[in-house]
């Protein structure tokens, strides 16, 4: 395989290529969200790609890597579509739960969309993890020129078993229902898993002629059976083992590393497939797929009866800060309130467990205009030149919030502005309220006030507020004491955490004795003076509550006396509110506070 030349690359990133654009495509009420990268303005493209992601927690970790893959392909003259399945990401929710057959149909629609909207003659479908099964099943029904199976799920049965194992603790919540399984906040129906269990790439029969690249995971055994099977049925098959899968696709979003070698290998292989295709093999072009920048959400997603729609922030107005606005369809139904939901960690704008999509659609159905957005360098917003990418605490945060608010309020009529976020999203909301005029409400969920939770660039021995809260909470459990007495606990870390907390408490006490105040006290007092309503939402044992108790007691009292304080602890919740019942109670609280 040969690297595309610099002249080819620069030519394809000229004025003849559109900037990356977000779109909705598909039938009304069933629209899928997508990004189109590198669409040519001056005619058809010989080769192009459709990127099929995975589902669940892995979809959050891999989001950035798939965006970088798509951008890399586009920069080298390969237009690329990446999209969200129905009921995932920013796509419209299907009636009931996500269906296995629907995911396959989504890939087929995305292939037709890529061919028609981007005028792609030959499509290569890239499937990551579970997306590899959807890609191959779609290739049984659609003509494609190539498949890239990246860390493929060869056995649907194995994936279903992994999902069920992750769900064991979550199901104890009981809110997911008997027909659904909750794994770390993401729901799949039992029927979906049953259908998946019956699926295997070793029985696949994609249409030929076809080429395939199997990108193996470095920590797993080689995919010998899959490669042999593909070759037996006449698929021209290559394989590679570039590494970087665990760090790029499985780690928590803020700790992921770009798998550069894998991206380069995939790009070169697809470019090579394009060079091998002859003009005479160009296929029949299917009918155009409907495309739009604004969608009206189905009635069953508008719980309060207010019809809602979704549209994009204008990237020209926000200097590239991306966000999706959910709002009432009828202007008269708007209650004058604008709400911004900010990134939790480095998870993209859909939020952990897709909570921001659910919250935005519910709050909009009550009459608010809600934007779920990506700060620059996170999710779908490009970073500031020279700054660290994928940083949960970007230096541009307050400026980004300002840009979002200008776009949200430009039409006038806004009487109330609220910022809300979890963990680092609470940090951005907190400092946004301190640095910008006009903020009337902030909701801080398991807040990080000054980056004290961040582990980015910190040594392994770094102690976070939640470490003390964890041990304090564990002290109420006999099982944890038994573990300690049996010598199975990390005594050294326990001692370090307790000593660190003692020093912090003493430092706070010394400040008060000297007539001084912690910065948190001062900042909360500023919010009280500015008449900003502050809501705190905690899960049991979260470190933010202890940090607030030790360092912000006087500021909290000022807010309380001014009638500006709201505080609640949601029982049985973990830090990201992954249990369905806890997430539902969080949604109820936001709906009550932000009416």
Largest sheet: 9 strands, mixed
- Give the number of domains: 3
Strand content: 15-25%
CATH superfamily of the largest domain: Alpha/Beta hydrolase fold, catalytic domain
Q: Give the termini separation.
A: 58 Å
Write structural notes for this entry.
This protein is of the alpha/beta class and 595 residues long. The chain has three domains: 20-154 and 208-291, Alpha/Beta hydrolase fold, catalytic domain (Rossmann fold); 156-199, no CATH class; 295-457 and 518-593, Alpha/Beta hydrolase fold, catalytic domain (Rossmann fold, 3-Layer(aba) Sandwich), CATH 3.40.50. It contains 20 helices and 20 strands. The protein has a nine-stranded mixed β-sheet, with helices on both faces. Helix 2 (57-75) links the parallel strand 3 (45-52) and strand 4 (80-83). Helix 12 packs across helix 13 (424-435). The longest helix has 23 residues, at 491-513. The termini are far apart. The relative contact order is 0.09. Mean pLDDT is 88; it is low at 1-13 and 170-176.
Summarize the structure.
With 595 residues, the chain is of the alpha/beta class. The chain has helices at 6-12, 57-75, 100-117, 130-139, 156-170, 190-197, 224-232, 245-250, 260-276, 315-318, 355-365, 397-409, 424-435, 465-474, 478-485, 491-513, 519-529, 543-551, 553-561, 580-593, and strands at 21-25, 32-37, 45-52, 80-83, 120-128, 146-150, 180-183, 186-189, 211-215, 236-240, 291-292, 294-296, 308-312, 323-328, 337-342, 369-373, 416-422, 441-445, 533-538, 565-569.
Topology record:
Blueprint: H1 6-12, E1 21-25, E2 32-37, E3 45-52, H2 57-75, E4 80-83, H3 100-117, E5 120-128, H4 130-139, E6 146-150, H5 156-170, E7 180-183, E8 186-189, H6 190-197, E9 211-215, H7 224-232, E10 236-240, H8 245-250, H9 260-276, E11 291-292, E12 294-296, E13 308-312, H10 315-318, E14 323-328, E15 337-342, H11 355-365, E16 369-373, H12 397-409, E17 416-422, H13 424-435, E18 441-445, H14 465-474, H15 478-485, H16 491-513, H17 519-529, E19 533-538, H18 543-551, H19 553-561, E20 565-569, H20 580-593
Parallel strand pairs: 3-4, 3-5, 5-6, 6-9, 9-10, 15-16, 15-17, 17-18, 18-19, 19-20
Antiparallel strand pairs: 1-2, 1-11, 2-4, 7-8, 12-13, 13-14, 14-16
Helix pairs in contact: 3-4, 5-6, 11-20, 12-13, 14-16, 14-18, 17-19
């Amino acid at each position: 395989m040969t690297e595309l030349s610099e002249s080819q690359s620069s030519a394809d990133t000229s004025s003849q290529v559109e900037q990356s654009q977000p779109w909705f495509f598909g039938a009304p009420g069933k629209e899928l969200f997508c990004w189109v990268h590198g669409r040519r303005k001056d005619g058809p493209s010989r080769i192009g790609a459709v990127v099929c992601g995975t589902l669940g927690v892995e979809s959050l970790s891999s989001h950035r890597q798939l965006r970088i893959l798509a951008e890399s392909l586009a920069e080298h003259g390969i237009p690329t579509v990446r999209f969200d399945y129905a009921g995932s990401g920013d796509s419209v929710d299907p009636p009931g739960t996500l269906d296995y057959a629907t995911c396959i149909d989504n890939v087929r629609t995305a292939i037709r969309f890529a061919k028609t909207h981007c005028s792609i003659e030959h499509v290569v479908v890239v499937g990551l993890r579970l997306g590899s099964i959807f890609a191959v099943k779609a290739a049984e029904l659609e003509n494609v020129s190539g498949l890239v199976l990246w860390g493929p799920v060869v056995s649907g049965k194995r994936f279903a078993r992994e999902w069920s194992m992750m769900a064991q603790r979550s199901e104890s919540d009981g809110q997911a229902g008997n027909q659904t399984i909750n794994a770390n906040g993401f729901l799949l129906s039992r029927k979906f898993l049953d259908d998946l269990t019956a699926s295997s790439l070793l029985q696949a029969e994609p249409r030929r002629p076809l080429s395939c690249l199997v990108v193996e995971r470095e920590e797993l055994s080689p995919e010998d059976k899959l490669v042999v099977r593909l070759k037996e049925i006449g698929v021209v098959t290559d394989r590679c083992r570039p590494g970087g899968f665990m760090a790029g696709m499985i780690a928590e979003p803020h700790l992921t590393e770009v798998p550069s070698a894998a991206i380069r290998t995939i790009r070169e292989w697809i470019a090579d497939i394009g060079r091998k295709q002859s003009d005479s093999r160009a296929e029949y072009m299917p009918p155009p797929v409907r495309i739009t920048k604004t969608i009206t959400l189905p009635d069953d997603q508008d719980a309060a009866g207010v019809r809602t729609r979704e549209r994009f922030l204008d990237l020209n107005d926000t200097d590239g800060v991306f966000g999706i606005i959910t709002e009432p369809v009828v202007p008269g139904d708007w209650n004058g309130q604008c709400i911004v939901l900010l990134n939790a960690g480095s998870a993209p704008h859909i939020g952990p467990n897709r909570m921001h999509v659910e919250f935005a659609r519910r709050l909009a159905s009550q009459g608010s205009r809600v934007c779920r957005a990506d700060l620059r360098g996170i999710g779908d917003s490009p970073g500031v030149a020279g700054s660290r990418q994928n940083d949960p605490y970007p230096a541009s945060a307050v400026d980004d919030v300002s840009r979002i608010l200008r776009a949200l309020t430009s039409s006038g009529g806004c009487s109330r502005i609220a910022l809300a976020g979890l963990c680092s999203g609470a940090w951005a909301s907190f400092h946004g309220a301190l640095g910008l005029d006009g903020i009337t409400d902030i909701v801080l969920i398991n807040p990080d006030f000054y980056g004290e939770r961040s582990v980015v660039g910190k040594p392994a021995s770094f102690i976070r507020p939640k470490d003390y809260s964890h041990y304090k909470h564990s002290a109420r459990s006999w099982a944890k004491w038994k573990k300690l007495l049996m010598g199975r606990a990390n005594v050294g870390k326990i001692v370090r955490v307790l000593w660190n907390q003692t020093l912090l408490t003493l430092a706070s006490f010394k400040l008060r004795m000297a007539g001084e105040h912690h910065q948190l006290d001062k900042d909360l007092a500023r919010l009280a003076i500015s008449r900003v309503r502050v809501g705190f939402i905690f899960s049991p044992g979260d470190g933010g509550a202890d940090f607030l108790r030790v360092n912000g007691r006087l500021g909290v009292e000022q807010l309380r006396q001014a009638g500006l304080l709201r505080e609640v602890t949601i029982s049985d919740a973990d830090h990201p509110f992954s249990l369905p019942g806890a997430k539902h109670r969080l949604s109820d609280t936001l709906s009550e506070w932000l009416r």
